[in-house]
Amino acid sequence: MAGASTIHLRSQALPLRATAESPVAKAVLIGITLVFLGLFLLLPLVVVFQEAFSKGAAAFLHALRDPYTLSAIWLTLLVAAIVVPMNTVFGLAAAWSLTRFRFRGRSFLVTLIDLPLWVSPVIGGLIYVLVFGAQGWFGPWLREHDIRIIFAVPGIVLATVFVTFPFVARGLIPLMEAQGIKEEEAALTLGANGWQIFRRVTLPKIKWGLLYGVILCNARAMGEFGAVSVVSGHIRGKTTTMPLQIEILYNEYQFAAAFAVASLLALLAIITLILKTHAEWRAERQLREATR
Amino acid sequence: MSISISNISKSFARYPALNGVSVEIASGELLALLGPSGSGKTTLLRVIAGLEFPDNGGTVSFGGCDVTSLSAYKRRAGFVFQHYALFAHMNVFENIAFAFRVLPRRKRPAESAVRERVGTLLEAVQLTEFEKRLPSQLSGGQRQRVAFARALAIEPEVLLLDEPFGALDAKVRKDLRRWLREFHERIKLTTIFVTHDQDEAFEVADRVILIDKGIIQQSGTPAEVRSNPANEFVRDFLDLPHK
Amino acid sequence: MNSRAQKRCRRHALPGLGLTLGFSLLYLGLVVLIPFSALFLKTASGGWPHFWETVTSPRVVASYRVSFGISLIAALVNGVFGVIAAWVLVRYRFPGRRILDAIVDLPFALPTAVAGIALTALYAPNDWIGSWLKPLGIQVAFTQLGIFVALTFIGLPFVVRTVQPVIQDLVAEVEEAAACLGANRWHTFRRVIFPALLPSILTGVTLAYGRAVGEYGSVVFISGNLPFKTEITPLMIITKLEQYDYSGAAAIGFVMLVASFVILIVSNGLQSWNNKRHGIS
To answer: Is B88 on the interface with A (CB under 8 A)?
Structure first.
């Protein structure tokens, strides 16, 4: 899937030209856009914060200090701290092998990496239940050895890895493809080994694209709901992440508390957008300079 | 360092770039590989360099030793890329010093030694006052000279240049051609450069090899080739009158 | 090490292929291929009668209508308004344009559960927009209309972001030539601009559709999950799992996978058409 998880060269808006629309048409189009984007994007964001504070700031803080909520926050952070580095290493390895070399089956692999973006997140959880769940392939073996994967943290980590592994790779692949390998070849002729080439030549070139992918990967890892919902078992205090905690609070009609937790994630989303935009801009600039 | 190439073939996804090419290059020679785009000249240069490996059967030898499966660095082949391939995030000094920085620890010279050697190289290419600049702050001709100096840092036995002046404008090209000729007179390094510009090849090189469609069409000194074109292709490419 | 290297007929100059490709394949194998083969095998092991009975049961079929049908409508609406938004964001300058442009990516960054409860609160009958629509007799939350709203939210960035680069690269001279030949702005749009944008619009719509079909978190809150009316197919999978009907869940999952695969193929085809027209190789 294209969209915000790949970097493309974007220039700024064109200045007004002779063949522009009439002022009336322009106003109408801008109006439609403002209503459309405002209604579908801005308004929900406003609702989150408004509802979070609907019972006052004291209630807001109280909701966040609830022990189950705190453990949900902790679990979310823990999962992200495991998943993001893992997927970053994968993204770097995959991008290196797919952009620095040509081999048969390469485009199949590129498509395979996009897979999680195409399947429902519920399927992302289902597949691990089918492997590790009570009736799954390893179910009996795991029960024998008293290892819990489904309805425990490892299952949540796995499901989150599945839905987020494309992001770093997709941030890097088009960038590294466009940058070409001449600098790496030059480093090779000068005596650098593989690790030196990567560290001294490639990494500085890709750092903004890498950051872009990591930011998106993190946002998705912390916010994943569908896949985690399937594997977690919703055991309060043990296997609820923040999104699941939101669901629990909401279903118990504790709306203000649910929105309080949601507002933290919404704040994360806003920060993500800011960082992502900046990283994307820097990566584009680097790419433009390289292709000059 | 003499170079011997024997029966090199190379295909890219069924497209035959080189077809049984064999060349002998004497030590200290300045050789031009001349041909149109897609003729295989750059592929041949890269095979000599060790940036591509030939399909089974061919061999590349430096000074009598078979280097066919050695990496580029182990062959001591300095390579200058068509668009310089300078490290964009490093300044001129660090670009040239790169070869020293990546040496294994026990062979790595002290910082003062690095400064000295980079300084010498900068003088050789007349870019001493630019050492702190980034490549984006240099002109095309200056970048080309940095690329030269960087390749020379490994004290190569062989110097390989891929269309070194192709991306520059006419006056800079003329100056650099002269500079390359003088440089070669001073330091008799076996040098091979690839070009599609026949004036350049004839003006600079001791010997010219014409390539088309992955096959060597003719090899000889500029005078020889001009007076005795071997076939139709050579005659056409050099704009010589038909018999 | 040297003699080993000399014996091998090395084919790549740059190092690291073996290590990075090996690791990537291992990772993909463990995370993707093995679990997915479990899906296929579980589907098969349930037996054909059970498979057929599950995927054609009335409640599940109703969920197909909801998931696949409403996603299509949402994707098409995004197609129309997304193009307008892309045009406005690229061609016009107005205060707040940059911020609006950045916010287009919000559905990517915002967790689906947060979007889900926000949209529900927004359109529930007693508050916000829901309360304005109530006297008009329109209910959004807990109806298919609510599902439509959620799926439009989810698909919004796809059309906008796919069309924006194409608009940016539209060559001014072509429009000016049309104007010189007497075309008014609408004609120019219809005959010159729109055909150039069509491949990217279709690509964006397909991407939005593919995403909407599988969407769960943003939809389950606002949908109300009424059987036969507002249940989405991913929810059916979860329902089967809760009943410990693993092979039933796998069966529905299989159907969704096949559908996603078809949408993927169509989208890839459209994307290469788009790239060809757009000039990217």
So the answer is: yes
Domain covering C49-278 in this structure, CATH number: 1.10.3720.10
CATH of residue A277's domain is 1.10.3720.10
* Residues of chain B neighbouring A288 (CB-CB closer than 8 A): none
Task: Let me know if residue A223 belongs to a domain.
Answer: yes
> What's the confidence (pLDDT) of residue A4?
45
Q: What is the pLDDT of residue A273?
A: 93
Domain count, chain A: 2
* Residue with the larger pLDDT of the pair A91 and B196: A91
**pLDDT per residue as tens digits for the range A110-160:** 889 988 988 999 999 999 999 998 878 888 888 888 888 888 899 999 999
Q: What is the per-residue pLDDT across C116-133, written as a single tens digit (0 to 9) for each? A: 999 999 998 887 888 888
How near does any CA of chain A get to the CA of C68, in Å? 13
Average pLDDT of B97-118? 91
A290 touches chain B (CB under 8 A): yes
- Tell me which residue of C120, C106, C76 sits closest to C212, measured CA to CA: C76
In a domain, A136, yes or no: yes
Confidence of residue B243 (pLDDT cuts 50, 70, 90): low
- Say yes or no: domain B1-76+158-243 is CATH 3.40.50.300: yes
Search chain A and give the residue with CA nearest C83: A33
For CA atoms B203, B204, B205, B206, give the dihedral sign.
positive
Q: Which chains touch A (3 or more CB pairs under 8 A)?
A: B, C
Provide mean pLDDT across the span B30-59.
Answer: 90
State the Cα–Cα distance between residues B198 and B216, nearest whole angstrom: 16
Ordered by start, the domain boundaries in chain B are: 1-76+158-243, 90-155
Report whether pLDDT(A103) > 60.
Answer: yes
Whether A222 and A242 have beta carbons less than 8 Å apart is answered as yes
At residue A292, the pLDDT reads 60
The residue of chain B nearest to residue A292, with distances taken between CA atoms, is B136
Tell me whether residues B72 and A201 touch, CB distance under 8 A: no
C5 has a chain B CB within 8 A of its CB = yes
pLDDT above 80 for B150: yes
Say yes or no for a CB contact (<8 Å) between C81 and A185: no
Closest-CA distance, B101 to chain C, in angstroms, reads 19
A191 in a structural domain = yes
Q: Write A64-70 long-range contacts (CB < 8 A, 24+).
A: A64/A260, A64/A261, A64/A264, A66/A257, A67/A237, A68/A236, A68/A237, A68/A240, A68/A245, A68/A248, A69/A245, A69/A249, A69/A257, A69/A261
Separation CA C6–CA C15 (nearest Å): 15
Query: Which sign does the torsion angle of CA B121, B125, B130, B133 carry?
Result: negative
Rounded Cα distance between A235 and C266, Å, is 40
Nearest to residue C67, comparing CAs of C252, C204, C267?
C252
Instruction: Please answer yes or no on whether A273 and C203 come within 8 Å at the CB atom.
Output: no
C-beta atoms of B53 and C10 within 8 A: yes
Chains with 3+ CB–CB pairs under 8 A to C are: A, B
Instruction: Enumerate the residues of chain A whose CB falls inside 8 A of the CB of residue B87.
Output: 183, 186-187, 200-201
CA distance A166 to chain C (A): 11
| Cβ of residue B53 closer than 8 Å to a chain C Cβ | yes
Backbone torsions φ then ψ of B209, nearest 5 degrees? -115, 125
Whether A265 contacts C111, CB under 8 Å: yes
Interface mutation vs chain C, best among B53, B66, B79, B160, most C CBs within 10 Å: B53
**What ipTM was reported for this prediction?**
0.89
B70 touches chain C (CB under 8 A): yes
